[in-house]
Amino acid sequence: MIRTIQLPLRQAGITLAQIPQGDSDAAFEARQDLAERLLRGRRAIGRDLDGLLRDHAGTAGIALPELRTVSNPFDATLIGIGARLLTGGTADVSSEELTDAWRSVWTGPPEQLDRITDAHLAADQAGTDLHAISPLAHGLPGLVRALEQADARLLCEAVLACTKASSTLMKLLKERADVELLTVLMDDVMWDQWVRAGGVAPPVGWGRRRSP
Q1: In sequence order, which ranges of 62-178 are alpha helices (DSSP H)?
Q2: d(CA 208, CA 155)
Q3: Looking at the predicted structure, is the pLDDT value of residue 199 above 80?
Q4: 15: burial class by Cβ within 10 Å (0-12, 13-18, 19+)?
Q5: Helices 139-149 and 76-88: angle between axes, nearest 10 degrees
Q6: Rounded to two decimals, what is the model's pTM?
Q7: Residue 198 predicted with pLDDT over 50
Q8: What is the predicted pLDDT for the residue at 207?
């Protein structure tokens, strides 16, 4: 798992040791430069992933629930913010920048983002920094340290649960993608926030039942 999450760095020829720590101007500028290196050569996915999913569903006569997140989580704006989070954590990305990035691609209900913004403001007024408890609070180096210190048994159970859930959903898509099943899945918050936003595209020929 640790090797996998470091793949973007390896592809850019960057090691964790090269990411400077601290809040000095020099360290900040160095992390920004490393974030730029992460983005070089990366091809932005300009497709509307949710629209693609709906087109496939439409051919099978399936009307999916309205989108509640973003239509393309791989938008260049979000990827740029993500690169800076990987190298510098939440300290290098302001709440305003993060919110503006999401708003630029948000196609769900506007009030949902407003609630998130209000929650951060309320937390700040109460003296709580929600970004400080983010898994990427200290960037990829912090996430790697957290994984290294995690209970191996619990970590394995989490990975197993995610793997089973993903394989089950793909099996359902391929073999039993009827109207009722897809509507239930697409209306579930887990599907909306994980599978659809994660870019899982339907296989060719979905919506057709296989013979026993």
Answers
A1: 76-88, 95-105, 110-125, 139-149, 152-175
A2: 37
A3: no
A4: exposed
A5: 60
A6: 0.68
A7: no
A8: 37
